[in-house]
Amino acid sequence: MKKTILIILVFVYGLTGSFILKAQNDMTIQGMRIIPQSFYSNPAFIPQCRWHIGIPALSSLYIGTGHNGFNPKNVISTNIQDSVELDVESMLNSMKNHNYLFLETNEELLSFGFKIKDKHYINFSATERAFARISYPKDLMEFIFYGNGALLDETLDVGNFRISANHYREFAFGYSYVYDDTWTFGARAKILFGMMNVNTKKTDITLNTESEFFDITATSDILVNTCEIHNMSDTSEDYEFDFGKYISNMKNMGLGFDLGATYKFNDELTFGLSVLDLGYISWKSDPMNIKSVNAGGSFTYAGVDISEFMSQGDSAFLQNLEDTLTGIFNVDTTYDKYKTSLNTRIHASAFYKVTAKDQISALVRMHFYDRKVHPSFNLAYMHKFGDIWHVTGSYSITNRNYTNFGIGFSLKLGPAQLYVMTDNVFAPIIWNRYTWQQEKEDDFGVTYWETQKLTLPRNWKYMNFHFGMNLVFGCKPPKDLVPILE
Amino acid sequence: MKAKLLLFAGVFGLVSVFMASCVKEEFDMDTITATNWDPNAAAPLINSSLTLWDIMNDYDSTDLLVVDSNQFVYLIYEDTVYSQSAEELISIGNQSLNYSDNMVLGTYSGDYVFDYDYNFDLSLGGGMELDSMILKGGDLAMAMNSDLSYPATIVMTIPGSTLNGNPFSVTLNYSGSGSSISQNLTGAKLIFDNSVVSNRLAVHFKVTIHGNGGANNATYANFNMNLNNLLFRYLYGYLGQFDLSMNNDTIGIKVYNNSFEGTVNWYDPRLYINVYNGWGVPIRSTVDYLEAIRTNAPANSVIINGAGIPNPWDINYPTSMGSYATSSFYLDKNNSNIDAALNITPQRILALVSGSTNPNGNVVKNFVEDVSRMAVEAKLELPFYGTADGFVLQDTFDISFGEDLSHVEWIMFKLYTNNMFPIDGTVQVYFCDSLNNRLDSLLNPIDQVLLSAIPGPAPDYIVTSPVAKTVSQKIEGPRIENLENTKKIVVSAWLDTYNGGSQLVKIYSYYKLDVRLSAQAQLSFNSSELD
C-alpha cells in the first residue's frame, strides 16, 4: 500500500515535474495591455505601446503545470503518534472521473509588433511550444483500492490513460483593426512545424463485473499515434539521436488561427471574445500508430468450463484462453501519417475601468479537449503606477481548485520592459517532503538501505510562471485617441 | 513615498514568488500505520453446462454410455469373464517310437534292400482320437543303432501324410551305429489310422545296404524315432473331454465406487452372458453362480438366481474352421432377481462358470485351430430408468486455501444450478485436516442445491423445463481459520430422484445441469504488512 501510494505520487507529481505542459497562458496577463504579449490572449487586444521588439529568447517564457486530481496534503498526514497516515478515501473523493496533469512551456524566440495610423496593428512572433496533458481515470484507482467486488455492475474505465504531448514551432502573423469607436477585430495566422507528438486517440479499456455471477467483461479499443518517438526511443547500437535534425524538422506542417473581437460598451466597460488555436498539425515524419487489431473487442470471463478443462487438460485450456485473449486484445503497429488538432480555447472577457489607474477584469476560459469543455474563471484587479509599474492581483478558479491567487507586474524603465506574473503565487512557496528507505545493491552485491526523498508542492493544483523582457516604444497614448481600455 | 511603495510591492512580489518557498512538512513514509487497504474481489470460478457424460466422467469412461434412438441413455458395463484359445487348452506331448529287428547274415555285393513296416501309436490325453493334425512346429529325431558293417540308406515314410505338400519322407544315411537325423516338422500333415488303434501312424522303413563283397556279420537293426515339441495349427477328429475353468472373474460397476448410502432402483436392469465359440467342439456349460457384491461399507452381497439362468447350458459350436458360434442368455427382473441384486449398489458382479467339451462323447467330429477361442462375456445394461432414494456419493480431494488467510475477512460462495435432471440433490463440502478430521463445512446450515426438474407423464417421463436454484454462503470470522488448516475437502451429495425417490424417472441424453460457482472475498491489509 505504501509503495502503491508512493508510486502514484511519483507518477502524478514526479511526472509533472519532468514534463512541461498545457497549451494556454496565464490568465493574469490579459488585462495588462502594457505588455505586448497580452495580444496573444485575444488578437483584438491592441497593445498600449506603438512599437515593441521582444528581446530574443527572453521576450516571453511561460512555464505552467497543474493537476486537477487529488492533492497530497489531503491524502497524507501525520497523526499524534507521529506516524504517517494515508487517507485513501480522501484521495479518491477528490478525484473526478478523468484527472489531468498539465505541463507546458512556451519560449518566444523572436517577436515584434507595431501600429499603423492607430487603426492597424501588426505582430509577428516565433515561439517554441511544448505541452503535455496526461489523464488518468478515477475508475482505475477505485478498482485498485476498492476491488471489483465493491464496484459491481459498474463499467470501470480502467484504461483511460490519455497522453497528448506536443512539441512544435509556431510562426504567427497577427493583425488587428480598429473598426470604429466600439469594435476592434483581430486575427493571427500561424504556420506550425511539429517536432514530436504523442497522441492517445483512444485508450478505452473497460472492466465490468456483473453482480449475479460476477462475470467479468473487458473491452479494449486502443489507438495511439506517435511521431518521432520511434526515432527518439531507438536503442540500437548503430543509432544516435540527431538533435539538430530533430529541431530543424520541417516535415510536420500545420496551420492555426486565432480570432478575436472587442466591443467597447461605454467608456468604462469593454467586452472581448476570442477563439485561440483553431488548427491542426499533420504528422508525417516517423509516424507510428499502435491500434487494436480487434477494435472494440470484448471478452467475458464467466468461469472455467469443467468439461472443457477436463477434456483439454490444463495446459491446452490455458493456451486456448490465452489465444482468445490475444485475439481480442492484441494490438498492431502501423506507420501511417495522422493529424492532431490544436488545443482550442475560447476566451470571453470583460474589463471595467474603475478609474484612470484602476481596472477590474473578468475572464471565462473554455478549453476544449477530450470531447469536453474545461472551464476556468479569472477575476483581476490592476493598478497602474504611472507608466512605470503596472501591478495586477488575480483570483482564479481552475483545475478544480479555488485557491489560486495570482500576482503580476510590469516594470518599464525607458524602452526596457520587464514583466513577471503567476496565477498562483502560493503554490511554489509551501512544499512537503516525503522520505523512505529503499533497499539497493552495490557493485559487490551487498545490499544496503538508502534514503529516498520526494519534495512536492503542498498544493500543486495549478501553478505557472510567466516572465519576459521587451523593448517598447510609444507607450503613452496620443491625446486624440481613446484606446479601447486605457 | 510612492516610489518606495512601488519598490516595496515589487520586491515583495518577487520574493514571494521566487524566494519564499520552504518545506512545511516532512513525512517519513516508513512509519505509515493504521492505513487499511480493504479491496473486495469477486470472480466467477466455474461455469459449466454438464451432460450426463460430463457427470459420469469422474466415475467411468464416457464410452460406456450409449443412447438409443429416443435419446434414452443406458449405462453399460462389459467384461470378458473367460477367454481361452485352443492352443492354450490342448497340448500335444512328445512322442517316442523304438523298434528293433534282426538283420539277415551274409555276404553282399552291391545294394541289398530290406523293408520294415511299423505302427507309431501317439499317446494323447482325454480320449482324443485324431483324424489328422497339421503342425506349425515340432521336430522329428530319427536314429539307427546296428552292428551292420556296411553303409546303408534308410528312408522313413508315413503313407498318406505329407511334409510341405510332399509325401512324408525322411532319409537317414547310416555309416555306423548311432547314425541319426533331425527333421523340422513345420507344415507337416499327419494322417492317423484309427481303424484298429486310436491315433496310429503307419511308418515304413526302407533300408538299402550298400554291400562291398565282404561278410555281413550284423545281427540287429534298432530304429529310434521321437516327435518333440509338437505345435499344432489344426486338429481334426475327436478332441476328447476337457474341463473348462471359467471361474472367478468380475464385472466392475464403477458408478458405485463412491457410493456409501441409499438405494438405487434400476427399473429394468439386464445382465447378458454371451459366449463366442470358435472351437468346432460341443461344450456344455454350467453357471455355478452369479453374485452381486458390495465392498463399500456396509458390505453386502446377493446371489443372482432365477429361471433365466440355463443349467446346463449347451454352447453352440461352429460348423467350419475359422468361424464362430454365439450362445447367449440374459437376466432381467422377469427371469431373475437381478433388480434386487443391484439395489444393494454393488461395486462388482462375480461370475462363476464352468464347462466341459464333448459332453456326449465321441459322437461329433471336432476341429480346432490353434488360435480359435472360446470367450464368455458378461454385459450389464442399466437403462437410466428407475428411482433413487438417499443415494450418497462422496469423494475426497486434496486442497489448500493457503496457510495465511489473516487478510481475508470473509469469503462468500454463490452456487447457481439450473437442473434439467429429475433429481433433487443436497451437497455438502466438508473441510478436513490431513487426518480427515472435519473442521468445518461449507453450507451451514446445509441446503439443497439441486432442485429436481419435474418429469412428464409415463411412459417417457420427459422433463421439459429445468429448475433453477441459487445458494450462497458466507464464511467469516473464526471459520476462516478452519480454511487455513484445511488440507482435504470431502464432497458429499445426497441424491433423490423426483418426489423423494418415489416416482420413476428416465434420463435422456439432452438433459443438462448448468452449474455456476462464484466467489467474493473481502480482504483487508494493513499498510505495515505491505512492504
Notes on the structure:
The complex is a heterodimer of chains A (486) and B (531). Chain A is mainly β and 486 residues long. Chain A is 14% helix and 53% strand. Chain A has a 21-stranded antiparallel beta sheet that branches. In chain A, strands 3-4 form a two-stranded antiparallel sheet. Chain A has a two-stranded antiparallel sheet with strand order 23-24. In chain A, a hairpin with a 3-residue loop joins strand 19 and strand 20 (389-398). In chain A, helix 7 crosses helix 8. The termini of chain A are far apart. In chain A, 42% of the residues are buried. In chain B, strands 6, 7, 8, 9, 10, 11, 12, 13, 14 and 23 form a ten-stranded antiparallel beta sheet that branches. In chain B, strands 16, 25, 27, 28, 29, 31 and 32 form a seven-stranded antiparallel beta sheet that branches. Chain B has three domains: 40-61 and 389-523, Sandwich (Jelly Rolls); 73-88 and 241-383, Jelly Rolls (Sandwich), CATH 2.60.120; 91-238, Jelly Rolls (Sandwich). In chain B, strand 9 (152-163) and strand 10 form a beta hairpin. Chain B is mainly beta and 531 residues long. The model of chain B has no long low-confidence stretch (mean pLDDT 85). Chain B starts with a helix and ends in a 5-residue tail after the last strand. Chains A and B meet through helix 1, strand 4, helix 4, helix 7 and strand 21 of A and helix 1, strand 1, strand 3 and strand 33 of B. Strand 23 (430-441) of chain A pairs parallel with strand 1 (22-28) of chain B, so a sheet runs across the interface.
